Protein backbone atom coordinates (compact mmCIF):
# COMPACT_ATOMS: atom_id res chain seq x y z
CA UNK A 1 0.00 0.00 0.00
CA UNK A 2 1.33 3.43 -0.85
CA UNK A 3 -0.06 6.81 0.03
CA UNK A 4 0.23 7.77 -3.63
CA UNK A 5 -2.09 5.09 -4.94
CA UNK A 6 -4.77 5.75 -2.32
CA UNK A 7 -4.46 9.50 -3.05
CA UNK A 8 -4.94 8.75 -6.76
CA UNK A 9 -8.05 6.67 -6.04
CA UNK A 10 -9.47 9.35 -3.73
CA UNK A 11 -9.00 12.02 -6.39
CA UNK A 12 -10.64 9.90 -9.08
CA UNK A 13 -13.58 8.91 -6.89
CA UNK A 14 -14.11 12.52 -5.79
CA UNK A 15 -14.71 13.39 -9.44
CA UNK A 16 -17.06 10.44 -9.83
CA UNK A 17 -18.98 11.37 -6.66
CA UNK A 18 -19.31 15.01 -7.74
CA UNK A 19 -21.12 13.89 -10.87
CA UNK A 20 -23.24 11.21 -9.16
CA UNK A 21 -26.67 11.77 -7.60
CA UNK A 22 -27.07 11.51 -3.82
CA UNK A 23 -27.64 7.90 -2.81
CA UNK A 24 -25.79 6.48 -5.84
CA UNK A 25 -24.09 3.21 -5.02
CA UNK A 26 -20.33 2.98 -5.44
CA UNK A 27 -18.86 -0.01 -7.28
CA UNK A 28 -17.95 -2.86 -4.95
CA UNK A 29 -14.50 -2.98 -3.34
CA UNK A 30 -13.66 -5.93 -5.57
CA UNK A 31 -14.41 -4.00 -8.77
CA UNK A 32 -12.52 -0.94 -7.48
CA UNK A 33 -9.53 -3.19 -6.81
CA UNK A 34 -9.72 -4.40 -10.40
CA UNK A 35 -10.33 -0.93 -11.85
CA UNK A 36 -7.43 0.77 -10.06
CA UNK A 37 -5.13 -2.28 -10.04
CA UNK A 38 -4.60 -1.65 -6.35
CA UNK A 39 -4.67 -3.86 -3.28
CA UNK A 40 -7.89 -4.16 -1.21
CA UNK A 41 -6.07 -2.39 1.66
CA UNK A 42 -5.33 0.61 -0.56
CA UNK A 43 -8.92 0.78 -1.80
CA UNK A 44 -10.24 0.51 1.78
CA UNK A 45 -7.93 3.30 2.82
CA UNK A 46 -9.24 5.54 0.01
CA UNK A 47 -12.85 4.76 1.03
CA UNK A 48 -12.06 5.62 4.65
CA UNK A 49 -10.65 9.00 3.53
CA UNK A 50 -13.79 9.73 1.50
CA UNK A 51 -15.96 8.72 4.46
CA UNK A 52 -13.93 11.07 6.67
CA UNK A 53 -14.58 13.84 4.13
CA UNK A 54 -18.30 13.22 4.50
CA UNK A 55 -18.70 12.33 0.80
CA UNK A 56 -19.79 8.70 1.17
CA UNK A 57 -21.30 6.42 3.79
CA UNK A 58 -21.06 2.71 4.08
CA UNK A 59 -24.06 0.56 5.07
CA UNK A 60 -22.73 -2.77 6.33
CA UNK A 61 -23.87 -5.70 4.20
CA UNK A 62 -25.47 -3.37 1.63
CA UNK A 63 -22.71 -1.25 0.08
CA UNK A 64 -21.20 2.23 -0.05
CA UNK A 65 -23.28 5.22 -1.13
CA UNK A 66 -22.84 8.85 -2.10
CA UNK A 67 -24.08 11.05 0.73
CA UNK A 68 -26.63 13.76 0.14
CA UNK A 69 -24.92 17.13 -0.08
CA UNK A 70 -26.29 19.49 2.51
CA UNK A 71 -26.98 22.87 0.98
CA UNK A 72 -24.83 25.51 2.61
CA UNK A 73 -26.95 28.38 3.87
CA UNK A 74 -25.22 31.69 4.62
CA UNK A 75 -24.98 31.87 8.41
CA UNK A 76 -26.16 34.86 10.37
CA UNK A 77 -24.18 35.46 13.55
CA UNK A 78 -25.36 39.04 13.89
CA UNK A 79 -27.37 38.18 17.05
CA UNK A 80 -24.07 37.41 18.84
CA UNK A 81 -23.05 41.07 18.69
CA UNK A 82 -25.87 41.93 21.06
CA UNK A 83 -25.41 38.85 23.22
CA UNK A 84 -21.66 39.32 23.70
CA UNK A 85 -21.37 43.11 23.88
CA UNK A 86 -17.98 44.62 23.15
CA UNK A 87 -14.97 42.66 24.42
CA UNK A 88 -13.49 43.72 27.77
CA UNK A 89 -10.10 43.80 26.10
CA UNK A 90 -9.16 44.08 22.46
CA UNK A 91 -8.52 40.51 21.48
CA UNK A 92 -5.29 40.14 19.55
CA UNK A 93 -5.10 38.11 16.38
CA UNK A 94 -2.51 35.35 15.93
CA UNK A 95 0.77 36.38 17.60
CA UNK A 96 3.68 36.89 15.19
CA UNK A 97 5.70 34.07 16.74
CA UNK A 98 2.98 31.50 16.01
CA UNK A 99 2.69 32.21 12.32
CA UNK A 100 3.40 29.31 10.00
CA UNK A 101 6.37 29.76 7.66
CA UNK A 102 6.88 28.35 4.19
CA UNK A 103 9.72 25.86 3.85
CA UNK A 104 11.94 28.24 1.93
CA UNK A 105 11.55 31.12 4.41
CA UNK A 106 14.34 32.03 6.83
CA UNK A 107 12.21 31.87 9.96
CA UNK A 108 13.63 34.01 12.76
CA UNK A 109 10.18 34.88 14.12
CA UNK A 110 9.20 31.64 15.87
CA UNK A 111 9.46 30.63 19.48
CA UNK A 112 9.90 26.86 19.46
CA UNK A 113 13.22 25.17 18.60
CA UNK A 114 13.70 23.34 15.36
CA UNK A 115 13.54 19.54 15.54
CA UNK A 116 17.30 19.19 15.01
CA UNK A 117 17.65 20.70 18.50
CA UNK A 118 15.24 18.21 20.10
CA UNK A 119 16.06 14.81 21.62
CA UNK A 120 14.14 13.08 18.83
CA UNK A 121 15.20 9.50 19.54
CA UNK A 122 14.46 9.86 23.25
CA UNK A 123 11.05 11.36 22.50
CA UNK A 124 10.01 8.64 20.05
CA UNK A 125 11.19 5.80 22.30
CA UNK A 126 9.55 7.34 25.39
CA UNK A 127 6.21 7.84 23.63
CA UNK A 128 6.25 4.22 22.46
CA UNK A 129 6.97 3.01 26.00
CA UNK A 130 4.33 5.34 27.46
CA UNK A 131 1.79 3.94 25.01
CA UNK A 132 2.37 0.49 26.51
CA UNK A 133 2.21 1.69 30.11
CA UNK A 134 -0.83 1.76 32.40
CA UNK A 135 -1.00 5.54 32.09
CA UNK A 136 -2.25 5.06 28.53
CA UNK A 137 -5.55 3.86 29.98
CA UNK A 138 -5.90 5.55 33.33
CA UNK A 139 -6.80 8.93 34.74
CA UNK A 140 -4.00 10.89 36.35
CA UNK A 141 -4.26 12.84 39.61
CA UNK A 142 -5.14 16.54 39.20
CA UNK A 143 -1.71 17.67 40.42
CA UNK A 144 0.16 15.21 38.22
CA UNK A 145 1.69 11.76 38.49
CA UNK A 146 3.71 11.56 41.73
CA UNK A 147 6.98 10.54 40.05
CA UNK A 148 6.93 13.56 37.75
CA UNK A 149 5.97 15.86 40.63
CA UNK A 150 8.97 14.46 42.49
CA UNK A 151 11.29 15.09 39.53
CA UNK A 152 10.24 18.75 39.19
CA UNK A 153 10.64 19.25 42.95
CA UNK A 154 14.08 17.57 42.92
CA UNK A 155 15.24 19.82 40.07
CA UNK A 156 14.49 22.95 42.06
CA UNK A 157 15.76 21.32 45.27
CA UNK A 158 19.13 20.73 43.60
CA UNK A 159 19.57 24.53 43.39
CA UNK A 160 18.32 25.14 46.94
CA UNK A 161 21.08 26.13 49.40
CA UNK A 162 21.39 24.55 52.82
CA UNK A 163 19.34 26.35 55.42
CA UNK A 164 16.38 26.74 53.06
CA UNK A 165 13.68 24.08 53.01
CA UNK A 166 13.61 22.47 49.58
CA UNK A 167 10.28 22.08 47.76
CA UNK A 168 8.42 18.78 48.09
CA UNK A 169 6.71 16.74 45.39
CA UNK A 170 3.38 17.78 46.92
CA UNK A 171 4.16 21.44 46.11
CA UNK A 172 4.18 20.63 42.40
CA UNK A 173 1.27 20.95 39.97
CA UNK A 174 1.89 19.43 36.53
CA UNK A 175 0.49 21.40 33.58
CA UNK A 176 -0.15 20.86 29.89
CA UNK A 177 2.45 23.51 28.97
CA UNK A 178 3.22 26.57 31.05
CA UNK A 179 0.98 28.98 29.12
CA UNK A 180 -2.22 27.77 30.77
CA UNK A 181 -0.37 27.76 34.11
CA UNK A 182 0.22 31.49 33.72
CA UNK A 183 -3.51 31.99 33.20
CA UNK A 184 -4.25 29.95 36.32
CA UNK A 185 -1.78 31.91 38.41
CA UNK A 186 -3.17 35.25 37.28
CA UNK A 187 -6.76 34.12 37.85
CA UNK A 188 -6.07 32.50 41.19
CA UNK A 189 -3.54 34.86 42.79
CA UNK A 190 -4.11 38.24 41.16
CA UNK A 191 -7.79 38.10 40.09
CA UNK A 192 -9.66 40.35 37.70
CA UNK A 193 -9.33 44.10 38.04
CA UNK A 194 -6.28 43.88 40.35
CA UNK A 195 -2.79 45.12 39.36
CA UNK A 196 0.10 42.87 38.33
CA UNK A 197 3.65 44.18 38.02
CA UNK A 198 5.33 42.91 34.86
CA UNK A 199 8.75 43.53 33.34
CA UNK A 200 8.74 45.60 30.16
CA UNK A 201 9.43 44.15 27.68
CA UNK A 202 8.05 40.77 28.67
CA UNK A 203 6.69 37.57 27.17
CA UNK A 204 3.70 38.35 24.92
CA UNK A 205 1.88 35.24 26.13
CA UNK A 206 2.03 36.42 29.74
CA UNK A 207 0.67 39.80 28.65
CA UNK A 208 -2.11 38.01 26.78
CA UNK A 209 -2.95 35.64 29.66
CA UNK A 210 -3.03 38.49 32.18
CA UNK A 211 -5.17 40.65 29.90
CA UNK A 212 -7.61 37.80 29.33
CA UNK A 213 -7.81 37.26 33.10
CA UNK A 214 -8.86 40.91 33.41
CA UNK A 215 -5.70 41.78 35.32
CA UNK A 216 -4.37 45.36 35.19
CA UNK A 217 -0.78 45.42 33.97
CA UNK A 218 1.77 47.71 35.63
CA UNK A 219 4.95 47.77 33.49
CA UNK A 220 8.35 47.87 35.17
CA UNK A 221 11.20 48.87 32.85
CA UNK A 222 13.78 46.11 32.55
CA UNK A 223 17.22 46.67 31.06
CA UNK A 224 20.17 44.38 30.28
CA UNK A 225 20.65 43.66 34.00
CA UNK A 226 16.97 43.28 34.87
CA UNK A 227 14.55 45.60 36.67
CA UNK A 228 15.65 48.14 39.27
CA UNK A 229 14.56 46.78 42.70
CA UNK A 230 13.76 50.34 43.87
CA UNK A 231 11.34 50.74 40.96
CA UNK A 232 9.71 47.45 41.85
CA UNK A 233 9.31 48.59 45.47
CA UNK A 234 7.84 51.92 44.38
CA UNK A 235 5.36 50.19 42.06
CA UNK A 236 4.21 47.85 44.85
CA UNK A 237 3.82 50.88 47.12
CA UNK A 238 1.93 53.01 44.61
CA UNK A 239 -0.38 50.41 43.11
CA UNK A 240 -1.07 48.05 46.02
CA UNK A 241 -0.14 45.17 43.69
CA UNK A 242 0.55 41.81 45.34
CA UNK A 243 2.36 40.03 42.49
CA UNK A 244 5.25 40.59 40.09
CA UNK A 245 5.57 38.41 36.96
CA UNK A 246 9.21 38.15 35.85
CA UNK A 247 11.75 35.98 34.07
CA UNK A 248 14.99 36.20 36.09
CA UNK A 249 16.83 33.78 33.77
CA UNK A 250 17.21 34.46 30.03
CA UNK A 251 14.11 36.60 29.73
CA UNK A 252 12.04 36.38 26.58
CA UNK A 253 12.69 38.56 24.58
CA UNK A 254 15.91 40.21 25.86
CA UNK A 255 17.90 37.22 27.17
CA UNK A 256 18.59 39.11 30.41
CA UNK A 257 19.70 37.15 33.45
CA UNK A 258 19.39 38.86 36.83
CA UNK A 259 22.54 39.05 38.94
CA UNK A 260 22.49 37.30 42.32
CA UNK A 261 22.27 40.73 43.96
CA UNK A 262 19.27 41.83 41.89
CA UNK A 263 17.55 38.51 42.61
CA UNK A 264 18.12 38.89 46.35
CA UNK A 265 16.99 42.52 46.38
CA UNK A 266 13.81 41.76 44.47
CA UNK A 267 13.06 38.84 46.75
CA UNK A 268 13.49 41.21 49.70
CA UNK A 269 11.10 43.72 48.11
CA UNK A 270 8.52 41.01 47.47
CA UNK A 271 8.78 39.87 51.11
CA UNK A 272 8.50 43.42 52.40
CA UNK A 273 5.27 43.97 50.51
CA UNK A 274 3.78 40.58 51.39
CA UNK A 275 3.64 39.79 47.68
CA UNK A 276 4.36 37.02 45.17
CA UNK A 277 7.11 36.79 42.60
CA UNK A 278 5.76 34.74 39.70
CA UNK A 279 9.03 33.35 38.32
CA UNK A 280 8.75 32.03 34.76
CA UNK A 281 11.79 29.77 34.25
CA UNK A 282 10.85 28.92 30.65
CA UNK A 283 14.48 28.73 29.44
CA UNK A 284 15.90 26.62 32.26
CA UNK A 285 17.35 24.14 29.75
CA UNK A 286 18.81 26.83 27.49
CA UNK A 287 21.81 28.17 29.39
CA UNK A 288 24.63 29.03 26.95
CA UNK A 289 27.48 30.74 28.78
CA UNK A 290 25.97 30.66 32.29
CA UNK A 291 23.70 28.36 34.26
CA UNK A 292 20.18 29.33 35.31
CA UNK A 293 19.77 30.22 38.97
CA UNK A 294 16.11 30.13 39.98
CA UNK A 295 15.12 32.77 42.52
CA UNK A 296 12.59 30.22 43.85
CA UNK A 297 15.50 28.21 45.25
CA UNK A 298 16.11 31.05 47.75
CA UNK A 299 12.57 31.07 49.10
CA UNK A 300 10.76 28.70 51.43
CA UNK A 301 7.95 30.97 52.59
CA UNK A 302 5.77 30.70 49.53
CA UNK A 303 6.64 34.13 48.08
CA UNK A 304 7.92 32.71 44.80
CA UNK A 305 5.51 30.88 42.54
CA UNK A 306 7.77 29.04 40.14
CA UNK A 307 6.85 27.82 36.68
CA UNK A 308 9.07 25.58 34.56
CA UNK A 309 8.32 24.15 31.12
CA UNK A 310 9.68 21.17 29.19
CA UNK A 311 7.74 22.02 26.03
CA UNK A 312 10.58 23.77 24.25
CA UNK A 313 13.44 21.55 25.37
CA UNK A 314 11.74 18.13 25.11
CA UNK A 315 9.29 18.62 22.22
CA UNK A 316 6.60 21.15 21.30
CA UNK A 317 4.29 18.14 20.85
CA UNK A 318 4.85 16.99 24.39
CA UNK A 319 3.41 19.86 26.32
CA UNK A 320 4.40 19.30 29.93
CA UNK A 321 5.30 21.94 32.50
CA UNK A 322 4.88 22.49 36.23
CA UNK A 323 4.12 25.11 38.85
CA UNK A 324 5.85 24.87 42.21
CA UNK A 325 3.97 26.87 44.83
CA UNK A 326 3.46 26.54 48.57
CA UNK A 327 0.69 27.16 51.03
CA UNK A 328 -2.81 28.38 50.22
CA UNK A 329 -1.50 29.87 46.95
CA UNK A 330 -0.79 26.36 45.74
CA UNK A 331 -4.28 25.21 46.76
CA UNK A 332 -5.91 28.09 44.90
CA UNK A 333 -3.90 27.40 41.74
CA UNK A 334 -4.76 23.70 41.97
CA UNK A 335 -8.47 24.54 42.26
CA UNK A 336 -8.19 26.65 39.12
CA UNK A 337 -6.40 23.82 37.30
CA UNK A 338 -9.13 21.37 38.24
CA UNK A 339 -11.74 23.76 36.87
CA UNK A 340 -9.76 24.51 33.72
CA UNK A 341 -8.46 21.15 32.60
CA UNK A 342 -9.03 18.49 35.30
CA UNK A 343 -5.70 16.70 34.78
CA UNK A 344 -2.84 16.29 32.30
CA UNK A 345 -2.70 13.28 29.97
CA UNK A 346 -0.82 10.50 31.77
CA UNK A 347 0.85 9.40 28.55
CA UNK A 348 2.50 12.78 28.13
CA UNK A 349 3.59 12.88 31.76
CA UNK A 350 5.02 9.36 31.63
CA UNK A 351 6.87 10.10 28.40
CA UNK A 352 8.24 13.40 29.73
CA UNK A 353 9.48 11.69 32.89
CA UNK A 354 11.05 8.88 30.86
CA UNK A 355 12.98 11.42 28.77
CA UNK A 356 14.27 13.67 31.54
CA UNK A 357 15.41 10.72 33.66
CA UNK A 358 17.10 8.95 30.74
CA UNK A 359 20.93 9.08 30.79
CA UNK A 360 20.77 10.47 27.24
CA UNK A 361 18.94 13.61 28.44
CA UNK A 362 21.97 15.18 30.13
CA UNK A 363 24.20 14.52 27.12
CA UNK A 364 21.49 15.97 24.89
CA UNK A 365 21.47 19.14 27.00
CA UNK A 366 25.26 19.43 26.78
CA UNK A 367 25.10 19.15 22.99
CA UNK A 368 22.25 21.64 22.86
CA UNK A 369 24.33 24.21 24.72
CA UNK A 370 27.03 24.03 22.05
CA UNK A 371 24.53 24.26 19.23
CA UNK A 372 22.81 27.29 20.74
CA UNK A 373 26.17 28.96 21.27
CA UNK A 374 27.25 28.54 17.66
CA UNK A 375 23.83 29.53 16.29
CA UNK A 376 23.69 32.61 18.54
CA UNK A 377 27.21 33.67 17.58
CA UNK A 378 26.69 33.09 13.87
CA UNK A 379 23.61 35.31 13.92
CA UNK A 380 25.39 38.01 15.93
CA UNK A 381 28.47 37.99 13.68
CA UNK A 382 26.28 38.09 10.58
CA UNK A 383 24.29 41.05 11.93
CA UNK A 384 27.45 42.91 12.95
CA UNK A 385 28.78 42.49 9.45
CA UNK A 386 25.64 43.12 7.39
CA UNK A 387 23.33 45.22 9.59
CA UNK A 388 25.64 47.49 11.61
CA UNK A 389 22.91 50.09 12.20
CA UNK A 390 20.85 47.58 14.21
CA UNK A 391 21.82 47.58 17.87
CA UNK A 392 21.98 44.35 19.83
CA UNK A 393 20.89 45.23 23.35
CA UNK A 394 22.65 42.28 24.99
CA UNK A 395 24.62 39.17 24.06
CA UNK A 396 22.26 36.75 25.79
CA UNK A 397 23.94 34.28 28.16
CA UNK A 398 21.08 31.88 27.48
CA UNK A 399 17.66 31.54 25.89
CA UNK A 400 16.76 31.46 22.22
CA UNK A 401 16.50 35.09 21.15
CA UNK A 402 18.26 38.28 20.18
CA UNK A 403 16.50 41.55 20.97
CA UNK A 404 17.50 44.07 18.36
CA UNK A 405 16.88 47.80 18.44
CA UNK A 406 16.53 49.25 14.97
CA UNK A 407 17.46 52.85 14.12
CA UNK A 408 15.05 55.32 15.72
CA UNK A 409 13.37 56.42 12.49
CA UNK A 410 12.57 52.86 11.30
CA UNK A 411 8.98 52.24 10.26
CA UNK A 412 8.66 48.84 11.92
CA UNK A 413 5.65 47.68 9.92
CA UNK A 414 7.34 48.56 6.63
CA UNK A 415 10.57 46.87 7.77
CA UNK A 416 8.82 43.61 8.72
CA UNK A 417 6.86 43.60 5.45
CA UNK A 418 9.92 44.30 3.32
CA UNK A 419 11.95 41.55 5.03
CA UNK A 420 9.04 39.19 4.42
CA UNK A 421 9.00 39.90 0.71
CA UNK A 422 12.61 38.65 0.74
CA UNK A 423 11.55 35.56 2.69
CA UNK A 424 13.01 36.60 6.04
CA UNK A 425 10.51 36.41 8.89
CA UNK A 426 11.17 38.46 12.01
CA UNK A 427 8.89 39.22 14.95
CA UNK A 428 7.90 42.84 15.64
CA UNK A 429 8.94 43.89 19.15
CA UNK A 430 5.60 45.60 19.76
CA UNK A 431 4.02 42.38 21.03
CA UNK A 432 6.42 42.20 23.98
CA UNK A 433 5.46 45.56 25.47
CA UNK A 434 2.69 45.68 28.08
CA UNK A 435 2.30 49.41 27.30
CA UNK A 436 3.56 51.55 24.41
CA UNK A 437 6.78 50.26 22.81
CA UNK A 438 9.81 52.33 23.77
CA UNK A 439 11.43 52.00 20.36
CA UNK A 440 11.48 50.01 17.12
CA UNK A 441 12.57 46.55 18.28
CA UNK A 442 12.52 43.14 16.64
CA UNK A 443 13.06 39.72 18.15
CA UNK A 444 15.17 37.22 16.26
CA UNK A 445 15.05 33.59 17.31
CA UNK A 446 18.23 31.60 16.66
CA UNK A 447 16.77 28.16 17.32
CA UNK A 448 14.69 27.85 14.15
CA UNK A 449 15.41 25.84 11.02
CA UNK A 450 18.32 26.42 8.65
CA UNK A 451 20.95 28.32 10.66
CA UNK A 452 23.20 28.20 7.58
CA UNK A 453 21.01 30.97 6.15
CA UNK A 454 21.76 33.45 8.99
CA UNK A 455 24.34 35.43 6.96
CA UNK A 456 21.81 35.76 4.14
CA UNK A 457 19.07 36.81 6.60
CA UNK A 458 21.39 39.43 8.14
CA UNK A 459 22.28 40.71 4.68
CA UNK A 460 18.57 41.16 3.88
CA UNK A 461 17.92 42.84 7.24
CA UNK A 462 20.84 45.23 6.65
CA UNK A 463 19.77 45.94 3.09
CA UNK A 464 16.16 46.57 4.14
CA UNK A 465 17.21 48.95 6.90
CA UNK A 466 19.35 50.84 4.42
CA UNK A 467 16.53 50.96 1.89
CA UNK A 468 13.72 52.17 4.11
CA UNK A 469 15.65 54.70 6.17
C1 LIG B 1 8.56 33.22 28.78
C2 LIG B 1 7.65 32.14 28.35
N1 LIG B 1 6.81 31.58 29.22
C3 LIG B 1 5.96 30.60 28.87
C4 LIG B 1 5.90 30.15 27.57
C5 LIG B 1 4.89 29.10 27.21
O1 LIG B 1 5.51 27.89 27.11
P1 LIG B 1 4.71 26.51 26.97
O2 LIG B 1 5.05 26.03 25.62
O3 LIG B 1 5.24 25.67 28.07
O4 LIG B 1 3.26 26.81 27.15
C6 LIG B 1 6.75 30.70 26.62
C7 LIG B 1 6.68 30.25 25.22
O5 LIG B 1 7.16 30.89 24.32
C8 LIG B 1 7.65 31.71 27.01
O6 LIG B 1 8.48 32.26 26.13
UniProtKB/TrEMBL annotation:
Residues 3-69 form the HTH gntR-type domain. SUPFAM superfamilies: PLP-dependent transferases, Winged helix' DNA-binding domain. GO terms for molecular function: DNA binding; DNA-binding transcription factor activity; pyridoxal phosphate binding; transaminase activity. The keyword Transcription applies. InterPro entries: Aminotransferase_I/II_large, HTH_trans_reg/aminotransferase, PyrdxlP-dep_Trfase, PyrdxlP-dep_Trfase_major, PyrdxlP-dep_Trfase_small, Tscrpt_reg_HTH_GntR, WH-like_DNA-bd_sf, WH_DNA-bd_sf. Pfam families: Aminotran_1_2, GntR. It comes from the Bacteria. The keyword Lipid metabolism does not apply. CDD domains: AAT_like (cd00609), WHTH_GntR (cd07377). This is PLP-dependent aminotransferase family protein. Keywords: Aminotransferase, DNA-binding, Pyridoxal phosphate, Transcription, Transcription regulation, Transferase. PROSITE patterns: HTH_GNTR (PS50949). In the C-terminal section; belongs to the class-I pyridoxal-phosphate-dependent aminotransferase family.
Amino acid sequence: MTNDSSTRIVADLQTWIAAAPAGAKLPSTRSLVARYEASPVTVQKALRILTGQGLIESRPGVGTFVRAVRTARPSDYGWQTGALGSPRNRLSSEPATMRAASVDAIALHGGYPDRELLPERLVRAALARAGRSDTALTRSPIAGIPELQAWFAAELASATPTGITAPQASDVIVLPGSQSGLSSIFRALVTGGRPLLIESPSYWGAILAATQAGVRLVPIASGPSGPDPDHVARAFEETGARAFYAQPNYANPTGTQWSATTAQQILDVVRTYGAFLVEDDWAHDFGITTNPTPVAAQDDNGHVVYIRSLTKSVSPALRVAAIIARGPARDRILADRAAASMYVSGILQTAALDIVTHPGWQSHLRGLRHQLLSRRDLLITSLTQHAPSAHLTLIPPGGLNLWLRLPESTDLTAFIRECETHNVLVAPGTEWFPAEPTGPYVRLNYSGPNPGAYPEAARIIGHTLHQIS
